[in-house]
Structure to design on (480 residues):
């Protein structure tokens, strides 16, 4: 019986051709023998129609925010307006090259400069660099500036970075890669930073505290001003993980809270596509006392136009080839200008409203460990279902059968059987209600037919995978 989902290699037959190339209009050069292949590359021989069907089928199997609800907690997966794609494809943006002289790329430089200025206002910072390629890259860049700042002040003894136990995993990882020792700060029963523990652990060896606000439990750190005072009085810096900025735009800002450095995830908050490894954008913003350490080159406005300035003796240097992921910057700029200040405020209001609506509707069927007004996301626990033999992973797999992408599960680590849900402001009430009904249905199934949930998914192209084995025996090619 013929396989329905054959690979292109399985469909291959000698003599089939799926492409046509125009005649070369440049001189043909022969490769040096040491660089030439000893035998032809092993490529499938299929028709153009087969090739199109293969990739179209793969695109249908792939899930994205345009296919359905994507409630991935702490990783804002909102709709990407198509006007963003139109502007990114404008010839003047799409066809420029980063090695062109600055006088021929003034439009691009102006856009990046104005985006920097917009992000300064949104974050309450005094300076911004657009170079970092993603959030974790922005974290590392920020921590390298922390190191440079303390070194300039002669305080090389500051070797520790404090990180709450509810933090994103990139926080301790970035701190470690930047050469710091990581110190964990516990969370209180209310889901907030333990101030007594913080006071006990700050000292002359503290370089910075990395903090997300609202935190990964979706709760606003109401003691943030006191937290900032504790860290600053010890001589440390306060670093803002901007992954959850979607909850506070035009309501407050990291600058008002007392943060010294912030990174932003443009590919989350500002509606540019992300996933699958990139591309992303993780700009960093800093207060005035950190500006000398920002990466170079810097985009500066002068009387005769915009220039790329390299001469900054205290800079940590270049952190990315060229000037950032420009296509992502264009999309984020378009989104900010489309929304405006009032629109960005409504974005955060909508995200907070949606999260609280879902939390209230689901807390009767699932445990809600922190029954407080949340911000843009909240965390349920599947511990009640676990008593019935149904784990959070089973619930996530069963959601796939109903056409929903699963939320983040088992994070934050401090919540047993965690289910982290972030609905975003771009979803309709009808979609949220449909998600609620499915989650309630799964809770009922866990009681009445637990094996149905335990064996999910039932209706996908593949059944449940051995994820441990897949992680250890990775196969990344399409060879039979």
């Amino acid at each position: 019986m013929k396989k329905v989902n054959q690979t292109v290699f399985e469909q291959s037959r000698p003599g089939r051709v799926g492409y046509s190339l125009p005649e070369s209009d440049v001189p043909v050069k022969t490769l040096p023998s040491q660089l030439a292949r000893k035998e032809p590359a092993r490529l499938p021989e299929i028709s153009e129609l087969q090739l199109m069907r293969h990739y179209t089928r793969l695109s249908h199997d792939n899930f994205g925010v345009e296919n359905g609800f994507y409630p991935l907690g702490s990783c804002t997966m909102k709709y990407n307006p198509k006007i963003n794609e139109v502007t990114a494809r404008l010839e003047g943006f799409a066809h420029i090259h980063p090695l062109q002289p600055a006088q021929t790329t003034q439009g691009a430089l102006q856009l990046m400069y104005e985006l920097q200025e917009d992000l300064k206002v949104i974050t309450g910072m005094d300076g911004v660099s657009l170079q970092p390629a993603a959030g974790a890259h922005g974290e590392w860049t920020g921590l390298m500036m922390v190191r440079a700042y303390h070194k300039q002040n002669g305080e090389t003894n500051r070797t520790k970075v404090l990180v709450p136990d509810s933090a994103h995993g990139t926080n301790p990882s970035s701190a470690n890669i930047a050469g710091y020792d990581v110190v964990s700060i516990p969370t209180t029963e209310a889901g907030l930073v333990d101030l007594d523990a913080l006071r006990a652990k700050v000292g002359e060896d503290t370089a910075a505290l990395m903090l997300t606000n609202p935190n990964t439990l979706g709760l606003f750190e109401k003691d943030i001003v006191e937290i900032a005072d504790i860290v600053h009085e010890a001589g440390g810096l306060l670093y803002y993980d901007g992954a959850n900025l979607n909850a506070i735009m035009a309501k407050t800002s990291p600058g008002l809270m007392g943060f010294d450095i912030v990174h932003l995830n443009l590919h989350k908050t500002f509606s540019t596509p992300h996933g699958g490894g990139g591309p992303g954008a993780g700009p960093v913003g800093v207060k005035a006392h950190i500006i000398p350490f920002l990466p170079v080159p810097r985009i500066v406005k002068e009387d005769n136009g915009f220039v790329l300035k390299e001469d900054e003796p205290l800079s940590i240097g270049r952190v990315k080839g060229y000037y950032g992921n420009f296509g992502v910057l264009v999309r984020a700029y378009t989104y900010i200008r489309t929304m405006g200040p009032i629109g960005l405020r409504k974005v955060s209001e909508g995200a907070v409203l949606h999260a609280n609506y879902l939390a209230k509707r689901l807390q009767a069927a699932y445990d809600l460990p922190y029954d407080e007004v949340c911000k843009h996301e909240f965390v349920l626990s599947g511990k009640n279902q676990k008593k019935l033999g149904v784990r959070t992973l089973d619930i996530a797999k069963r959601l796939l059968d109903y056409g929903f992408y699963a939320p983040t599960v088992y994070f934050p680590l401090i919540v047993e059987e965690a289910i982290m849900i972030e609905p975003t402001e771009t979803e309709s009430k009808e979609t949220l209600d449909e998600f609620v009904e499915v989650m309630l249905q799964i809770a009922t199934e866990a009681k009445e037919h637990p094996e149905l949930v335990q064996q999910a998914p039932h209706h996908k192209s593949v059944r449940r995978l051995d994820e441990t084995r897949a992680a250890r025996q990775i196969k990344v090619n399409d060879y039979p």
In short: The chain has three domains: 8-62, 83-338, 348-470. The first strand starts at residue 127 and ends at 129. The mean pLDDT is 94. The radius of gyration is 25 Å.
